[in-house]
């Protein structure tokens, strides 16, 4: 009987697999026709669908051509689209100019472009669902050793498919005002100036007001400064205070190693004795009490070393649905994997950073991501970290002309002198040139610079790691070569210009900008990226002077440098650091619990 059921199931699957793939030629042709007739239809359609949503390969090429014309600000009609497709060698696939004219002429209604786009996207989602279902089935048929890993991967695929980046996020001001009033009343009635989860460090809470829900906090440090120990202190303090789970993702250490550190910090027993097992009777008593206290907290550790942003989002979402969630900690950012096919590591890390900010907002919890810092800071006399020391962050020189939203240009030096509050700059959001708020301008120190010159005569001086926008996406300066196409701004339009020369320009004081939303700007009319800290609400650095100067008068203490605080002040909090048990604590608590 089982054999018969198996054969029946096989026949059923065979029938399913031979069905017609979901699509609507009529909707796709009508959408393309409407776009050929109306620039408004092009603008609306680009927000709803992309080329991959089309089932017809020839119509995909038409859509790509129109998108390219729209981004350049060029007119869109059958003739201009035909010329664009001719350059790409795809015009014959749609029947030439006559085929485009026929598509335009047979359009039922221009005003229904949005509805056509919705139909195209829905069928695209169905096809993707079929593809994902097949991939999930293939994973199951492969008889994997780790079934739960497959289930997690399947969930991630479905979650990614179900995401709608264009979901309506509009909120009436009446509702927003009501929520703001509730928050103000809660703050007024609270004796502490803390609205988020306390960090457990009084001096730090005085600056950042605790760990706010939906905030992304980046904690950077050079090796040996204790960033993992600091994160563990935050996690254990938050777990005690919030009484809700704290989720710690460790891509570098195992859960056993982290648990040993937590026990050492909680018991204040020397970590080397815990690792070696050479414990005294008093040690065992302290450890027993520490384990009892830690067992009452809800700290979860995921030590999978190959995590992606989707993995983190999926597991955090499940835990919050099951038990609640007060904090997510990731150790550390540069070890995370991004999407496959990212144009560069700069883009990959930037997308990870953006994904973590989205995670914080979606789950309404604070997310703390640890970050490795560039070794360049160790060449400075004062080795205290700065924002530019975040890896994958580049800088430009003070004479760089920044294009403002009203098409005026100011050098970075002029912006600093005049004040940058309320300024907007022109940026590129991937589809069009848009005005974006300039939220920060800051010096990054003295650095080696290089002059990039283009064939049209544009030049800019920047550091080797500063990203430029090329035909292949974002690329660092040190990855550019002669002949590479760069995006430049001419007559308020994106166009392409080839690199003519890259030469060393010596050391100079450098600067960087933080631009909201698009995270890029036009420097000397060349499109460049801004720094890694773009998505973070708070950026903190850990500095212990004794790492560089063992006889330092500040031995046994640490500075937590709040270098960026989107909604409050910056400053420095001083903490005690007990090296024998890798514990960070408030200076006032150093002599007692």
Written description of the protein model:
By secondary structure, the protein is an alpha+beta fold. It folds into three domains: 25-161, Orthogonal Bundle (DNAb Helicase, Chain A), CATH 1.10.860; 197-374 and 539-589, 3-Layer(aba) Sandwich (Rossmann fold), CATH 3.40.50.300; 394-530, Beta Complex (Endonuclease - Pi-scei, Chain A, domain 1). Helices cover 40% and strands 23% of the residues. The protein has helices spanning 2-17, 25-37, 39-48, 57-72, 78-88, 96-105, 113-141, 147-162, 173-189, 202-208, 227-242, 255-267, 271-276, 281-295, 309-323, 345-363, 412-418; strands at residues 216-221, 246-250, 299-302, 327-331, 367-372, 396-397, 401-403, 409-411, 424-428, 433-454, 459-462, 467-470, 473-476, 485-490, 493-515, 520-523, 526-529, 538-543, 557-565, 571-578, 583-586. A hairpin with a 4-residue loop joins strand 20 and strand 21 (583-586). Helix 11 (227-242) crosses helix 12 (255-267). The longest helix is centred in the first third of the chain and has 29 residues, at 113-141. The radius of gyration is 28 Å and the shape is globular. The model is unreliable at 165-170 (pLDDT under 50).
